[in-house]
Design a protein that fits this description.
With about 120 residues, this protein is mainly beta. The chain is about 0% helix and about 55% strand. The strands form 2 sheets. Strands 2, 4, 5, 6, 9, 10 and 11 form a 7-stranded mixed beta sheet that branches.
């Protein structure tokens, strides 16, 4: 059974930082492209960042220079370091695991609220 369990969300003031973690089980983690998506109220889910099996990264323009995605294959975990947070970063953040010819896997989401 595949499980993606996110943690690290919370409430932070503008300009603050948070680190999200996503622990995966039930998959061969090193074979999956891992990503973070977010969904704000009334908006569509959007890609925030993704990291390939080889460590290449891709970011949404809105988070470039502020967020960093990384992975630890030994721990089956992907991270999202979020710095200089803005109110518009407020959303539920979802972990995603993708591999060719298999359905994508999703975590349950973790709430990030940026507010003074």
């Amino acid at each position: 059974q595949v499980q993606l369990v996110e943690s690290g969300g919370g409430v932070v003031q503008p300009g603050g930082s948070l680190r999200l973690s996503c622990a995966a089980s039930g998959i061969i983690f090193r074979l999956y492209v891992m990503g973070w998506y977010r969904q704000a109220p009334g908006k569509q889910r959007e890609l925030v960042a993704e990291i390939s099996t080889g460590g290449s990264t891709n970011y949404a323009d809105s988070v470039k220079g502020r967020f960093t995605i990384s992975r630890d294959n030994a721990k089956n975990t992907v991270y999202l370091q979020m710095n200089s947070l803005k109110p518009e970063d407020t959303a539920v953040y979802y972990c995603n695991a993708m591999r060719l010819k298999t359905p994508p896997e999703w975590g349950q989401g973790t709430q990030v609220t940026v507010s003074s």
